[in-house]
Input
Amino acid sequence: MSRKKQPKQISRRLLGNEEHIARYCYRQQILRDPETGDVISILDSFKLRPIDKGELSVDQFEKLGNDFNARLKTAVSTFRSMIKHSPVTADSMISVLNVGAVKEIGRGAGKELKVKDKSRPDRPTYAHLLGLPHDNSDNSLLASLSDEGIKSCHFIEVIDKLP
Output
């Protein structure tokens, strides 16, 4: 009688307040001021789709590299390899958010937001932002996440030029 080998369990820890997440923002999700070109909203990048099952895909920023620029470059590479339905364009961007700030935004909206490690062999930095309303009904919450995300947003065209 042979035994089936059990799959190796991967830790599914919650990310701590001091950690950061990276969220890819498609160019269609970025609202810019028509006069200045400044980013004024990325609210749509925090909306759940029906297929998301309440889990917004993000990446664990600190796991992407040793320094900030290396992490951004690795994030772009990761998104280019994972996103098959739409190419990663120069006018799209990556937003970096502090997990503690995300949780605080959730508390302010009466929601328990958390980020859970969902790493897997083909994407060791993968995580899920949990606790967002399935129907995207809380525009105030989404706007607050957008405002936080804009504080550290980086266009792909700029990241691609980093050393």
